[in-house]
């Protein structure tokens, strides 16, 4: 066969394939069920600013989708999947803020069109008020890891940008990042490895702290900014891990010891207190209240590890903090007793409106990503009552979470997809503390993206602007080993 004949054949087949999915929907047979779309966006609530909810339909040769707004506007797409134009999508969602979008889905199968029952998506009145998300993306592993790093994603589009990747410094692991109340003008993360350090970037100025302080007995991890930006809370942990011998469990992480403290980045002083550094208890994962006058943290009675790892169970405590003087209160209160329930609490995150603390509850330990039974709970700080968030939980590991700045949206990780990989889900929170059905972070081609990805997402957080970070020079600075010394006050 001649070359030009081959090209004509390829072009002809391509044109036929394109034509096969650009046809009018005629005589569609009604199917009395809703379409089995991926991702499952049926009945979710979204912010008007979110990227298009593109989806696919299994076993369909062609998909035809019409979206109509309850307050006006209409979209029509046809193709291998529902792939909406970003500008058209946002015009429709903004027009229907506080209303609904009705999706009519038809599928071409074996030459016959079928029309499914309509489904709706609500467009919330609550604004997102954030530019995007930051998160760590890493292939599941234990001691050795391949490519990983910190990334940021524009929530209005599908654009993702690396903040820093471990390919810049051999053996580097990047984790434990945090912005000040979603404002990345104050940003911190920790680097593990031969060139370990804790990075502080404040208003464009960057410095690298020595990875560990002998007086602390470890590194500065699990950061959380004070709302004023004058302080950052940390814990220092002697972390170990072990492996299970049963099929449904893989790895266990525990601390030989851990303490909580507050750091002043201006003076480079570590502010410790005997109440937060007790020899028989492990204090962990500190967070400030939105007004900055309370420090919440987890605490656990030290056990004989690894033999009694299942007895590692954490409660939620609080101590007052005076930002004017940098001094702690004189007593510690337990505000949620998970141990009395035979459970362990982890990852406390206060809402920025001061109403709630969102946390994860599990059977034991605090590395919830490895616990299939981990679920989300909500503590009402006004009533002291806590409840399981059955409306957003699944039968797989639901864990790491954070609030947006107006406290009406959360992002969290879940392994509900396949039980192996942690993906990001968002949900809306109404004025009474009720959560909407979670939805998977939209992607341009979601089926392809999530099925072909070998990475898990964790430690997600919202950011009101894009993180401005010079990764190239930062990589050089990490390799230089020039570090700022910290001192204990």
UniProtKB/TrEMBL annotation:
SUPFAM superfamilies: DPP6 N-terminal domain-like. The keyword Cell membrane does not apply. It comes from Xylanibacter ruminicola (Prevotella ruminicola). It comes from the Bacteria. Keywords: Signal. Gene3D superfamilies: TolB, C-terminal domain. Residues 1-19 form the signal peptide. This is WD40-like Beta Propeller Repeat. The lineage of its organism: Bacteria, Pseudomonadati, Bacteroidota, Bacteroidia, Bacteroidales. It holds the Pfam family PD40. PROSITE patterns: PROKAR_LIPOPROTEIN.
């Amino acid at each position: 066969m001649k070359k030009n004949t081959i090209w004509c054949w390829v072009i002809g087949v391509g044109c036929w394939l394109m034509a096969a999915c650009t046809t009018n929907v005629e005589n569609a047979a009604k199917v009395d069920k809703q379409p089995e779309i991926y991702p499952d966006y049926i009945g979710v609530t979204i912010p008007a600013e979110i990227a298009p909810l593109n989806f696919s339909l299994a076993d369909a040769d062609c998909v035809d989708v019409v979206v109509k707004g309850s307050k006006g506007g209409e979209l029509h797409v046809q193709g291998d999947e529902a792939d909406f134009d970003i500008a058209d999508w946002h015009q429709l969602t903004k027009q229907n803020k506080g209303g609904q979008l009705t999706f009519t889905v038809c599928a071409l199968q074996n030459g016959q069109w079928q029309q499914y029952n309509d489904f709706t998506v609500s467009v919330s009145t609550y604004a997102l008020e954030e530019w995007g998300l930051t998160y760590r993306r890493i292939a599941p592993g234990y001691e050795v890891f391949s490519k990983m790093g910190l990334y940021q994603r524009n929530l209005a589009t599908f654009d993702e940008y690396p903040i820093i990747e471990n390919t810049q410094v051999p053996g580097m692991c990047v984790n434990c990042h945090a912005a000040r109340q979603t404002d990345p003008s104050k940003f911190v993360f920790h680097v593990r490895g031969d060139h370990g350090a804790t990075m502080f970037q404040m208003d464009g100025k960057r410095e690298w702290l020595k990875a560990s302080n002998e007086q602390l007995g470890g590194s500065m991890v699990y950061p959380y900014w004070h709302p004023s930006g004058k302080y950052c809370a940390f814990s220092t942990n002697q972390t170990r891990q072990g492996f299970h011998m049963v099929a449904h469990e893989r790895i266990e992480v525990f601390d030989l010891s851990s303490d909580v403290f507050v750091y002043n980045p201006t003076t480079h002083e570590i502010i410790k207190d005997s109440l937060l550094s007790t020899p028989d208890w492990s204090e962990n994962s500190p967070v400030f209240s939105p007004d900055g006058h309370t420090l919440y943290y987890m605490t656990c009675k030290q056990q004989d590890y690894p033999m009694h790892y299942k007895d590692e169970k954490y409660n939620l405590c609080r101590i007052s903090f005076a930002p004017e003087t940098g001094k702690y209160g004189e007593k510690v209160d337990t505000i949620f007793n998970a141990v009395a329930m035979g459970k362990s609490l982890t990852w406390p995150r206060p809402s920025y409106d001061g109403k709630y603390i969102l946390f994860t509850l599990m059977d034991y330990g605090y590395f919830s990503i490895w616990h299939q039974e981990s679920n989300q709970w909500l503590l009402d700080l006004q009533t002291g009552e806590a409840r399981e968030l059955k409306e957003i939980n699944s039968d797989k590991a639901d864990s790491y979470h954070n609030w947006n700045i107006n406290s009406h949206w959360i992002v969290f990780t879940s392994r509900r997809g396949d039980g192996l990989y942690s993906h990001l889900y968002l949900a809306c929170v109404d004025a009474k503390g009720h959560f909407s059905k979670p939805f998977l972070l939209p992607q341009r081609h979601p089926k392809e993206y999530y099925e072909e990805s070998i990475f898990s997402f964790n430690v997600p957080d919202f950011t009101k602007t894009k993180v401005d970070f010079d990764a190239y020079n930062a990589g050089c600075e990490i390799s230089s080993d020039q570090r700022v010394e910290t001192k204990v006050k």
